[in-house]
Amino acid sequence: MEAELGLSDSVERLRWFIKLRWLAAVGIAVAALPARVIGIDLNPLPLLAIAAFIVGYNLALWLLVRRLAPSSSKTKQLHLGTAGLGVVGTATNAQIALDLIALTVVLHFTGGVTNPFYLYYTFHIITASILLSATSTFLQTGLAVALFTAMALAELAGTIPHVPLRNAFDGQEYRQPGYVGIVVLALASTLILAAALATSIVGKLRARERETFQLKEKLEREMLETQRSCERLREVEKLKSQYMRKASHELKAPLDTVESQLSVIVEGFAGDLPDKPRELLRRAISRLRELRALVNDLLTLSRSQRPVVYDAREPIDVEREIRDVLASFAEQVKERGIGLSCSVDASVSEFYGDPEGIRNLLSNLVSNAVRYTGADGRVLVCADADAKHLHLTVSDTGIGISPEGKARIFDEFFRAKEAREMVKDGSGLGLAIVKAIVDAHGGSIRVDSEPGKGTVFAVRLPLRRAATDEFRDSMAIEIADTASSLQVGNQAQGAH
Q1: Are strands 378-385 and 339-344 parallel, antiparallel or unpaired?
Q2: Exposure pattern of 94-107 as b/e (b: 16+ CB <10 Å)?
């Protein structure tokens, strides 16, 4: 797109200079006509030949511009793109070089260095600066200086004959009205053309400035609208989290009550019960526990989706937390013959964070690693730190994750195909909780895995993070929810 816009601008400027070149050719052709009137004897044939030469190469440029950008449609122009820019640049360089040669020849046949119209070299350099790069402009400037110097030295040495501009001024040019008129015309036309060029350039710049300002205002409006949309999304997310916490709390107490009462019946405290109904009740209790685990996961997820700021953090002994989590899986890994170990580098000292969040993070990662690692497999938890971050790594030799599964591994309620095939039960919230905890601490998490080759989860948590108003708001919500939960729990205990 940038190349297309550059080509469009270049072609538009070329059109304008082509029109000026037509006027220049006409001006040279008629220049000899009034010469005799003011006492100047000029041979018109060389001037007419130069005018014809200018018309010829200007016509070629005009045809090229029409080919690149037909007046009826810009489709072809836009299609050429960068290639079109190269063609236009080469043609423009050639045209300006030919202009300088033509001007030098005109000056030679109209008085050489005594002709004040050598000021017209200025217009060609201005044209080059508008149409060409800085390097090309300086090269064209060098060509202009070289051409004028070569003409002057050649006339000085007699290599080419000097064609006098005047007939009989005899060193008294300032007394001759004809010569004074030529000088005034040269200066006036130079200033007028310079003003026209400058006005055109400034006009285009001001138009671009207005377009830029309008674009800036549009972007600011769109940015403001985007910010408002983000604020609305945050409000919706906050309402969703509040609803999830409230719903989970409301569900947890009745589930605990139902499970407790069913357990009383199964254990025979309410009287004898036949074996078949007892087995059915045990299955019901098992499903209730799964449902309660899901509710607990939802509560954990909703709590984890809030930022944990430095002012609210507590010092955490990372090594102790890791060993406590591993100890909770000791019996399970022993039964399945899985090797479970940890490696904590000496660089890890106290880390400030949410203790419950860090325990949940470690527990979920280790739980997943153990669940999806077969017999004789290995699970390793590593921790180290640098000046700014704590690094936690949980690796296993389990079933691994497919590329499709990796893309959605942190989505809520998502379980990869490999996980569903190996373990039927699961809420799909464990890794979503891990991601929420990492985000709340301002950290990042990366997963490396291949099917059948194990999985590595690498967590990086910053040692420091600034406080936010959002955290204070979420703390107020949490206090209210906790009070509500305690009230519901007390009611449930009364029901017992």
Answers
A1: parallel
A2: ebbbbbbebbbbbb
| Cβ neighbours, 10 Å, residue 304 | 24
Q: What are phi and psi of 385, to 5 degrees?
A: -150, 155
> Measured between alpha carbons, how far apart are the two ends of the chain, in Å?
74
pLDDT recorded at residue 483: 44
Return the exposure string of 348-365: e unless at least 16 CB atoms fall within 10 Å of the residue's CB, then b.
Answer: beebbbbeebbbbbbbbb
d(CA 447, CA 271): 53
Q: Strands of 309-353 (E only): list them.
A: 314-317, 339-344, 350-353
Tens digit of each residue's pLDDT (9 = 90 or more) over 419-440: 777 776 666 778 888 888 898 8
**Helix, coil or strand: residue 388:** coil
Do residues 462 and 475 lie in contact, with contact meaning Cβ atoms separated by under 8 Å? no
pLDDT band at 250 (very low <50, low <70, confident <90, very high): low
| Inter-helix orientation angle 430-440/275-304, to 10° | 20
Lowest mean pLDDT among 116-120, 187-191, 274-278: 187-191
CA distance 102 to 108: 10
Percentages helix, strand, coil for the chain (3-state, rounded to 5) are: 70, 10, 20
Is residue 64 predicted with pLDDT exceeding 70? yes
CATH 3.30.750.24 fits 311-467, yes or no: no
Whose CA is closest to 101, among 164, 138, 147, 160? 147
Cα angle value 22/25/31 (rounded, 5°): 140
Using CA atoms, how far apart are residues 106 and 100, in angstroms rounded to an integer?
10
Q: What is the DSSP string of 392-453?
A: EEEEE-SS---HHHHHHTTSTT---HHHHHH-----S-HHHHHHHHHHHTT-EEEEEE-TTS
For the record, the structure tokens of 191 come out as 């200033």
Q: Enumerate the domain spans of the chain.
A: 2-168, 311-467
Q: Is 107 helix (H, G, I), strand (E, B) or coil?
A: helix
- C-alpha to C-alpha distance for 309 and 299, rounded to whole angstroms: 20
Residues contacting 18, CB < 8 A, separation 6+: 58, 61, 62, 65
What tokens appear for 111 in the block? 């008085």
Region 167-196: what's the mean pLDDT?
62
Structure-block tokens of residue 137: 């402009």
CB count within 10 Å of CB 38 equals: 15
Instruction: Supply the pTM of this predicted model.
Output: 0.45
pLDDT at 488 over 60: no
